[in-house]
Amino acid sequence: MLIATVALVLALGVASRVLADRQRIPSVLFLIVAGIAIGPEVLGLVSQETFGGGLSAMVGVSVAIILFEGGYHLHLEKLRESPTALTRMVTVGAAITWLGTAAAVVVFLDTSLEVGLLVGALLIATGPTVIGPILQVVTVRDHVASVLEGEGVINDVTAAILVVVVFEVLVAGNGTPVALVGDFAMRLFVGLTFGALIAGIVWLVLDRARSRPCAAPLHA
Length: 220
Hints:
- Helix content is 75%, strand content 0%.
- It is built from ten helices and no strands.
- It is globular.
- Residues 12-209 form the Cation/H+ exchanger transmembrane domain.
- InterPro entries: Cation/H_exchanger_TM (IPR006153), Na+/solute_symporter_sf (IPR038770).
């Protein structure tokens, strides 16, 4: 049953992408509709219980692949076209999105401040899986596309770290509000350090593979 479910999800993903390419519509729209259709609210073919305890691992691996793929296709030359705009998007823009969404959630949904801040942190992420398909069908200037692509990848990481910190510090009560900034900075530093280390190792491996001389062709 699990294999059939995974096959169904993959098939719907491929079909959504093909249909989106033909209709010139961002594929994320078809993916959302397909997810709702097979989800617990409609057909009920897929639910949280379907994957059991492996759901969190699958989500973690999927997010890692998405961010790696998005970061792999970022080019420093393109990001340097509008460095000021990109910096503002991933700092001031992220903060405004976080606090503004939190305020809206608290006011309009009548929730606690902690829940509002958690929802706001979740919605910081735009994601390369959303920005990429949109840029494929919407024509924008090169520097605008570079800023959007960079923001989609960087703010995904920011949102992921901030969500964990907000949940542990404010919602779960495992720290004080003053520790929020320090915990966020520490996790970001650790992530950047390990990310840079792994990226350096991958670069060295690929560079050596490219520089290795090919074997001379054999002649009869």
